[in-house]
Amino acid sequence: MKRGFIFDLDGVIVDTAKYHYLAWKKLANELGFEFTKEQNELFKGVSRKRCLEILLEIGNRKATQEEFDTWMIEKNVDYLEYIKKMDQSEILPDVPKILQYLKENNIPIALGSASKNAQPILEKVGLLHYFDAIVDGNNVTKAKPDPEVFLLAAKHLNVAPTDCVVFEDAVAGIEAANRAKMISIGIGDKNVLTEAQFNFVDFTEISLDFIKEIIDN
Ligand code: B16
Ligand code: MG
Q1: Is this prediction's pTM over 0.90?
Q2: pLDDT for 80-113, tens place per residue?
Q3: How is domain 4-14+88-216 classified at the CATH fold level?
Q4: Any residues with CB less than 8 A from the CB of 63 and at least 6 apart, and which?
Q5: Helical H runs in 45-131?
Q6: Residues lining ligand 1, Cβ inside 6 A
Q7: Atom of ligand 1 nearest to the CA of 137
Q8: Atom of ligand 1 nearest to the CA of 8
Q9: Which residues are catalytic?
Q10: Chosen CATH of 17-83 out of 1.10.490.110, 1.10.150.240, 3.40.50.300, 1.10.10.10
Q11: How confident is the model over 28-58, as pLDDT tens digits?
């Protein structure tokens, strides 16, 4: 048996949700309505296209196809301005410790993210070299909670889905991992990620003994 580990990006490795929020808020304000941090919670783990659909529902706005496409691009251009400035300091606590441990033990590592900007973000924060496979918004046709992103990651790692472990911060991501029959580990609020097999607030709560146990069992 060989284990594979799959990491979500936003909310697990880095907190890019705050930049997504600022970019969506700017667009909402330009369109004449407010967008709150609470509403931004609905966007976690959700594809860019679906986010804009939800945003327009919130603002009660209709859009032509041309407007929709323009606003998607506009939001992403603003988001990329924030990403440009990212560096190692934005990595969430103890993430490198876990990645390093997995690498030292020759455990294959993949990214399984909805973001189309995943690779440049990993590059900016200096973590790209840890990943044996990157599966993101550019490679999948079905968004989480569909298991496609994680099943594809398992395939690239050459590991059976049932031997894969997924770290996720979004409800849809935990559902996707469970549907892929993988071990799901919720990072964040356990009262929100109720379907996760294991729950931790963040990586500082995860010991290397726990990781070792998961690898061995
Ligand atoms: P992009 P994850 C997701 O990342 C974010 O949580 C979500 O808010 C965002 O809309 C989505 O990526 C798409 O991102 O606009 O960069 O393609 O949590 O799946 O890593
Ligand atoms: Mg996430």
Answers
A1: yes
A2: 999 999 999 999 999 999 999 999 999 999 999 9
A3: Rossmann fold (3.40.50)
A4: 56, 71
A5: 48-58, 65-84, 95-104, 118-124
A6: 8-11, 20, 43-48, 51, 76, 113-117, 137, 170
A7: 17
A8: 20
A9: 8, 10
A10: 1.10.150.240
A11: 999 999 999 999 989 998 999 999 999 999 9
